[in-house]
């Protein structure tokens, strides 16, 4: 076992040297001092591969597919010392992950030698049965015996504690299972230094939203943008855009909406719309901050084609995307953008040279519009620092990002993964055009 004090200096205890000699020693949870947090990798495992992408659904795939497509994130996070792993509501081939002893105890704890603790999702053991909580004693037995160490019980925790205690006393759940859970939870707490400093370190509160952190977030935005199209051909690129122009148009539902830039799980579970929920820079503000002072920036969320044609814009930036969502609210069988976004693309790009920036948590239907638009950028959910988008659009920095997912042509191709025999994506996994910074812009 490796013990990391709050100072961040690792201490290796003699009894544990055998573990540390093991080439898999990185499976030990690691927290580098009081300025780092205990992380949680989730949702174990196959959560991204459910049938039709439906939340909490069933992932149908053979073991080889599970290990090669869905498991690599866990290999990496365990080696980096992730302290906790949360189990998925979803099932693998019909077996609820919260009940899957083979994958939680067998693979995660025994094969990968994960030494942090396994936590359930919110009412995760309740949902082992259909309907949820139909047989709670069964849920307790099955979840604990699967190898879950900490159970997230949002409401009636005495029911859980009483049920668990009864089952341990009656040897339905072996004491060795409790010992394993307690050992793992205590190990993480020791490593976090909670026994030396049990309370939150309030001296760090002033760091929240600090300039330094916003700069880092802005850099993350710059580096995560993926340029999917840039002009009709490589010798006629549209990007980087000139900062100096007489008049430019910024359009689209996501151009001036911090809540939309941030997506779900921001301030509220399902996210919000608008600019007064948190501090930050919208993409529109970022553009205004970046262009030449003489460039006139016209912002119109949903311009008509007539409006665009009747103005002499040098070029247009259209920012569209998905509204915020989390979990089941994000389920979509069509993966289309809202109609307002599609009409913004048509009205603007049909009339003037345009770059379309897509704000989305995933690839969306874009193929029908690719020939209409001049440049296309996947910005994912850039968060509060919309300035990072302008930094790259106008060439202060180059585009460098690559697709970490395959971008489909039509939803009926899904699921489609790199390596599939009939791989026919719109943009393949790893795709991303580059530009070079133009300091003279
Ligand atoms: C609940 O599950 C247990 C098995 O753990 C079973 O013995 C019992 O009959 C079930 N109760 C109901 C009401 O289905
Ligand atoms: C909590 O669970 C116990 C045992 O099932 C039950 O008797 C009690 O009514 C529950 N309390 C609430 C507030 O649901
Ligand atoms: C801004 O926030 C306030 C609450 O602080 C709310 O009452 C108001 O409706 C919000 N305005 C917009 C445009 O969202
Ligand atoms: C696509 O699916 C979403 C979510 O289910 C739905 O709200 C929307 O109306 C659908 N769009 C079309 C064009 O069918």
From TrEMBL:
Single annotated GO MF: beta-glucosidase activity
Keyword Cell division: no
Keywords: Glycosidase, Hydrolase
Gene3D superfamilies: Glycoside hydrolase family 3 C-terminal domain, Glycoside hydrolase, family 3, N-terminal domain
Gene Ontology biological process terms in this record: glucan catabolic process
Residues annotated as domain Glycoside hydrolase family 3 N-terminal: 35-188
Domain called Glycoside hydrolase family 3 C-terminal: residue spans: 225-434
Any single Pfam family the record assigns to this protein: Glyco_hydro_3
InterPro entries registered for this protein in UniProt: Cellulose_Degrad_GH3, GH, Glyco_hydro_3_C, Glyco_hydro_3_C_sf, Glyco_hydro_3_N, Glyco_hydro_3_N_sf
Descriptive protein name: Uncharacterized protein
């Amino acid at each position: 076992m490796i013990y990391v004090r709050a100072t961040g200096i690792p201490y290796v205890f003699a009894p544990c040297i055998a573990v540390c000699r093991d080439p898999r020693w990185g499976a030990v949870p690691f927290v580098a001092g009081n300025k780092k947090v205990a992380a949680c990798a989730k949702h174990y495992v196959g959560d991204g591969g459910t049938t039709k992408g439906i939340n909490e659904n069933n992932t149908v795939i053979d073991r080889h597919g599970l290990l090669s497509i869905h498991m690599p994130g866990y290999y990496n996070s365990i080696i980096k010392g992730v302290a906790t792993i949360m189990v998925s509501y979803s099932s693998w081939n019909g077996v609820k992950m919260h009940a899957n002893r083979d994958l939680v105890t067998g693979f995660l704890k025994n094969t990968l030698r994960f030494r942090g603790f396994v936590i359930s999702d919110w009412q995760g053991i309740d949902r082992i049965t259909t309907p949820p909580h139909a047989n709670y004693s069964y849920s307790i037995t099955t979840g604990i015996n699967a190898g879950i160490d900490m159970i997230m019980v949002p409401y009636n925790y005495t029911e859980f504690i009483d049920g668990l205690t009864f089952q341990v006393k009656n040897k339905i759940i072996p004491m060795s299972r409790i010992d394993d859970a307690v050992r793992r939870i205590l190990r993480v707490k020791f490593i976090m230094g909670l026994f030396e400093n049990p309370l939150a370190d309030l001296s760090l509160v002033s760091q929240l939203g600090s300039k330094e952190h916003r700069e880092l977030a802005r850099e993350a935005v710059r580096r995560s943008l993926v340029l999917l199209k840039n002009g009709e051909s490589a010798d006629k690129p549209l990007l980087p855009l000139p900062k100096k122009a007489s008049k430019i148009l910024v359009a689209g539902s996501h151009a001036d909406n911090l809540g939309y830039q941030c997506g779900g799980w921001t301030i509220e579970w399902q996210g919000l719309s608008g600019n007064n929920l948190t501090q930050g820079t919208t993409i529109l503000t970022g553009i205004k901050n970046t262009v030449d002072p003489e460039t006139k920036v016209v912002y119109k969320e949903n311009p008509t084609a007539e409006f665009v044609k009747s103005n002499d814009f040098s070029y247009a930036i259209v920012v569209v995307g998905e509204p915020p969502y989390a979990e089941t609210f994000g389920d979509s069988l069509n993966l289309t953008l809202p109609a307002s976004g599609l009409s913004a693309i048509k009205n603007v790009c049909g009339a003037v040279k345009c770059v379309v920036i897509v704000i989305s948590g995933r690839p969306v239907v874009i193929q029908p519009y690719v020939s209409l638009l001049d440049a296309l950028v996947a910005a994912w959910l850039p968060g509060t620092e919309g300035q990072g988008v302008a930094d790259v659009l106008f060439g202060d920095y180059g585009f460098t990002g690559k697709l970490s997912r395959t971008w489909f042509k039509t939803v009926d191709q899904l699921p489609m993964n790199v390596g599939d025999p009939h791989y026919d994506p719109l943009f393949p996994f790893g795709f991303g055009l580059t530009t070079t910074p133009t300091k003279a812009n």
